[in-house]
Amino acid sequence: MRDHYDFSKMKGRKNPYIKYLKQPVTMRLDRDTIAYFKSMSDETGIPYQSLINLYLRDCAVNHRKLEMKWAS
After folding, report:
1. Whose CB among 12, 23, 48, 64 lies 3.0–4.6 Å from 59's, allowing a Cys bridge?
2. Is residue 38 domain-resident?
3. What pLDDT is recorded for position 23?
């Protein structure tokens, strides 16, 4: 490998994968919910934040909607 590379003649271009990058967000979740996903993380070896992301992505892809009725 060279000790020095000349990048002055390179043409820059935007990252084509920018739309696939994750966006950081802050969410407030119940302790029980976090404990559930952390236990799943221990079983599967997948980080719990990735498991939450996978679950939410599955809901979005399959157009699942929460059906709740408040007791009156």
Report:
1. 64
2. yes
3. 87
